[in-house]
TrEMBL record:
Classification via SUPFAM superfamilies: P-loop containing nucleoside triphosphate hydrolases
Protein name: WSCD1 protein
UniProt cross-references to PANTHER family, sorted A to Z: SIALATE:O-SULFOTRANSFERASE 1 (PTHR45964:SF8), WSCD FAMILY MEMBER CG9164 (PTHR45964)
A Pfam family assignment: Sulfotransfer_1
Family matches, as InterPro entries: P-loop_NTPase (IPR027417), Sialate-O-sulfotransferase (IPR051589), Sulfotransferase_dom (IPR000863), WSC_carb-bd (IPR002889)
Domain of life per record: Eukaryota
Domain WSC: 138-230, 241-338
PROSITE patterns: WSC
Gene: Wscd1
Signal peptide: none
SMART domains named among the record's database cross-references: WSC (SM00321)
Alphabetical keyword list: Repeat
Gene Ontology MF term list: sulfotransferase activity
Length: 573
């Protein structure tokens, strides 16, 4: 009896110790999680530092522009009045106060840029029976079809929304671009076209729930839920307008240059563009009473435009200007020759960064690189808005080496030396500051309100971020192992030559036609529509003086490393 009691007592002691250990472990894990969440909240909720926390700048300058760099060589001019005095370093790169990144600024850029977005995707409904095809739309459901990415039938336009895709959203997008059919796949991908897929599948194989509409079917894995878009359904504004590309010299043999043609008496622009849209071509070319449809190619690249005078009468008479010129229009059809993208099949041996200051066009550059190379780009961060619009590399770990390059806004020795090489994208700081301020308050496609611009946030933003713009470039010049400097303005003005340089730097071979396709889709989905004109100048004279000094510092550092200096349009302002 005593022995049994002793065993029971021993067992209870062990159980008590085990429960105590599990309780302590639970409390420790909860404490660590609470501390981590508190740190993230503090980072997200903190506002920008005041002006006296920004990097110190030189004193008042007597001139503006790419002036005598000797103004930067006086150590007394390189230290702000409120900053502690420091001896000057090697002047080939920059003042010491600008090269060395202090801890306050590092925390600042992380607080202002990092946006931790929780992307809670809807849980897929188990089974096919719980889903429906009768959502709030007026299209006719045509059935479930096989989707072959190599021989895709619905290839007129492609859209992604990995969080909010609905059947109605896809139909509206296709209807606005004058397509007949809308197909959905993987619950988040939308494809448009004018030809119905030929291979039908079993209805139950379209079993992916729409990301933005519970209970609705949006295709499946390699399966398309296809709808016929109604011609005139309420709420859809048909975007059948075309864009005039200009007057161009006609190829010697138009039939060989363009795969589809139409001869029509009394031909109009609307007739030709409608015909080419139905045939799913992005270009409509009018030569007299003849209409040709096709793509930009090496034989017809749209690079050598002619004066509009040469095309007078071209539309009404094929003998105008001896028939050497033609009118070119852009149809609503998307050029899909370069829209296919994938992850690298093998890990990249060279770890490449696509580095820029926020607001310098990094997203646009990623769009160009992805469509030119056919490979996804990665990101040091995670931006749910970009992921939902098709940048699938956003969710891939930034060190996976499955992407062609990795977006980063980081600077500092440790962050830079992780990469083997980098494309350093530089933009006019005035434009970069305004673009990032717009993104901060209105997202990738919106504009900050006048109230935002006139608030105290804007001066604090300029004081903090203008110094970051300069230090970002200087750090990459100092610590970067292999750099390709690309100026945003040069890329915008000479897209094909600069994009060629970037693609060659990434060690990828692409065809000329693919680059022309990229040029035809150059804006992507992240271009702010139009320029919002404000009735006031956002930069005060004090701000201009501050920014201009940083411009001079960066220009001198670039030239000191035998790179081309900043474009002259950066200053004066």
């Amino acid at each position: 009896m005593a022995r049994a009691f002793f065993r029971l007592q021993k067992f209870l002691r062990r159980t008590q110790f085990l429960l105590f250990f599990l309780t302590a472990a639970y409390l420790m894990a909860g404490s660590l999680l609470l501390l981590q969440r508190t740190r993230l909240v503090i980072q997200q909720g903190s506002r920008g530092t005041s002006a006296n926390q920004a990097l110190p700048v030189p004193g008042e300058m007597t001139g503006v522009g790419m002036a005598d760099p000797r103004t930067l060589q006086n150590p007394r001019l390189l230290v702000g009045m409120d900053a502690p005095q420091e001896p000057a370093l090697d002047q080939r790169h920059s003042p010491r106060w600008l090269v060395s990144r202090n801890s306050e600024l590092r925390q600042l850029r992380r607080r202002w840029f990092h946006r931790f977005i929780s992307d809670q995707e809807p849980v897929q409904t188990a089974g096919f029976k719980g889903m429906k095809h009768t959502a709030e739309h007026r299209g006719t459901y045509m059935g479930c079809f096989t989707d072959d990415s190599r021989e895709r039938t619905l290839k007129g336009a492609v859209f992604y929304d990995l969080r909010k895709m609905t059947v109605a959203h896809c139909q509206e997008a296709c209807a606005e671009r004058a397509y007949t059919y809308a197909g959905l796949a993987y619950g988040a991908e939308c494809y448009c076209g004018n030809t119905l897929p030929t291979t039908a599948s079993k209805p139950e194989e379209c079993n992916s729930e729409c990301k933005g509409e519970k209970g609705a079917v949006c295709g499946g894995v390699n399966r398309l839920s296809v709808y016929r878009v109604e011609e005139l359904w309420a709420g859809a504004k048909r975007r059948r307008n075309v864009i005039y590309r200009g007057c161009f010299r006609a190829p010697e043999n138009l039939t060989d240059a363009f795969p589809v043609s139409l001869i029509q008496p009394n031909l109009t622009v609307e007739m030709c563009s409608e015909f080419c849209s139905k045939k799913e071509f992005p270009l409509a070319v009018i030569w007299g009473q003849e209409c040709y449809c096709g793509y930009p190619t090496r034989r017809f690249s749209l690079h050598d435009g002619a004066e509009g005078l040469h095309c007078r009468g071209t539309h009404n008479s094929s003998s105008a200007a001896e028939g050497k010129y033609c009118l070119v229009y852009q149809t609503p059809v998307q050029d899909t020759r370069c829209t296919d993208r994938k992850f690298l099949t093998t890990k990249s041996k060279v770890f490449v960064a696509l580095s820029s200051f926020p607001g310098a066009g990094n997203t646009w550059a990623r769009h160009l690189i992805e469509h030119a190379t056919g490979y996804y780009t990665g990101s040091y961060y995670f931006d749910g808005a970009l992921y939902n619009k098709g940048f699938k590399g956003e969710k891939d770990h930034w060190r996976s080496r499955r992407t062609i390059c990795v977006k980063t806004h980081e600077s500092g020795k440790t962050e830079i030396e992780m990469f083997d090489s980098a494309i350093l994208l530089i933009r006019n700081p005035y434009k970069s500051l305004m673009a990032e301020f717009n993104r901060k308050y209105a997202g990738h496609l919106g504009y900050a309100t006048d109230r935002n611009w006139k608030s105290k946030e804007w001066p604090d933003f300029v004081n903090s971020y203008s110094s970051w713009w300069a230090s970002h470039v200087l750090d990459w010049l100092k610590y970067g192992k292999r750099l390709l400097i690309v100026h945003y303005e040069d890329l915008k003005q000479s897209l094909i030559p600069k994009l060629k340089e970037m693609v060659e730097f990434l060690n990828v071979t692409v065809t000329e036609d693919r680059l022309l396709c990229v040029e035809n889709n150059r804006d992507g989905n992240f271009k702010r529509s139009g320029a919002k004109l404000k009735d006031f100048e956002p930069f005060t004279q004090e701000m201009k003086n501050l920014i201009n000094r940083y411009i001079l510092t960066v220009d001198e550092a670039l030239r000191g490393r035998n790179f081309t200096g900043l474009p002259r349009e950066y200053v004066p302002r």
